[in-house]
Every structure is written in C-alpha cells, then in structure tokens.
Amino acid sequence: MNPLLKVSDLRVSFPGKGWRAPRVEVLRGVSLDVRPGETVGLVGGSGSGKTTIGRAILGLVPVQSGTIEFAGERIDGLSPRRRRALARDIQVIFQDPYTSLNPSLTIGDTLSEPLLAQGHAAREARARVAVLLDRVKLPADAADRLPREFSGGQRQRVAIARALAIDPRLIVCDEPVSALDLTTQRTVLDLLLEIQAQTGVAYLFISHDLAVVRFMSHRVAVIHRGEIVETGEAAAVTSAPENPYTRSLLLAAPIADVERQRARREQFEREVASPRA
Predict the structure, then answer these.
(1) DSSP code, position 121
(2) Residue pair 170/203 in contact by the 8 Å Cβ criterion
(3) pTM across the whole model
(4) Short-list 92, 109, 60, 105, CA closest to 159
C-alpha cells in the first residue's frame, strides 16, 4: 500500500539565541511514513523534535531541506492558499484542550467555522455539527454552550470533533491526552480508536509516553535529538526495544509492581554500562 504521508530526509533548523549565534538544527534527516487508515506513533522526550515534525507537516515551520508528500503530492513550501485547501485532508488535535478552543465562541460556532470556510451553507453546517457532537458522545445542547462549561476531557472531545468536521484523511495528534487525568485519557484514546474504525482516518500520534503510543499505534518511530533511532511494529518496539534510548523510554512508563520496576531499571543500567556490540 502506498503511503498517505511520506516524510523524507527532513531537516529543520531555528535561529540560535544571541547575536550572530549559529542556527540550531532541530531535525536531522528524519524519514517516516503513514499509510491510509494507520496510526503511526512518534515518541520521544522533551526537545527531541517530535512536535517540530508535526508542525512541519502542518506548514507551521519552514523546512530547510528534505520533502513532505501527501497522497503523492509534495506539500512542503506550499502557498498559503494551497495550504488552506489542504486543510480539508490534514487536520490537527493539539495538546491543551483549555487553550485550543476560542473561549468566546460557542461550541456550535467552533465546529461550524471550518465547515463555513470550506463553502458549506449555514444550514448544512448546523446539521453537520449535530452529527459531530453525537460522534464524540457529547449532548446536542453542547452546541449552544461555551468551552468554560466543559471539563478537560469534554473540551478535547470538542477538539476532536473540530478536527473531524471536514472528513480529513490524516489527523496530526500532538500530545492529545497529556493534559488529562488517566481515566479521561483512556476515554479519549478509546474514542480516537472508535472514530478511526468508523472513518478510516489515519493518525500521526505524537507523544512522550511509550505506553500511550503502544496502546494507539500500528507502527512506532522513536525520535531522539532530531533523529529517528528506532522504527518498527508497535508490539516489537514497545516490548523489546533494541535502542538504548527506546529502552529508557520504556523504563519511564511506570508499572504497579515496585520490585519489577526496580529490576527493570537495574537491567537497563547494566546494559547502558555494557552496550551491545
């Protein structure tokens, strides 16, 4: 199957701090792909470059070199007009449900906005909003309420509904549950999986949490200091990783058994002290 999204040898750099400071290379030749209907988990620690990949795909940061293709078309460096048209196929769910919604707009207005921008009539938009609210399991009267009237998990459901409004083929999920408590996280993750099963949408799922990525993903790419250090099927990468950095991420995912956690950490420390040939 041909990939829906293909990132090849992507390099991104930002200006350094201070006068005449050299540019800082954030992504160093990153390559990955996402197939139709698939979830690829992109996992890494803070500062690894994972969010920059998502922003580059969305056209929010300039690409220094390399290519980004969507459905066989190169999309890095698109004009603003063409980028707006591409929003029909590529959407995003951001990390913080408290700041990703306009506090002065009702939920109905928030969900109608992308539909109206794509040329839908107001009546069609209202009907679509009702369908979206039902899909993310929010009551119909939510359309007339403001974001402040909802919990964090409910706001993230609204953000998911907004991303789904125009039936995209790919959604970039940038730490979509990290601001939520564990119970709400599971509810939102289950909802994303259910929506994928119903619609066939593909996800690039960005997270620092290997356990969440394991739950969501078909394949996993691990990024460290701007480079992909390990890729493969989710079950293999998240249960028996080969790269020391991936193993450190596995250790960072807590388990209930204290003795097992201690033994696992001691084993990792031994492996780091005596790396594999």
Answers:
(1) -
(2) yes
(3) 0.89
(4) 92
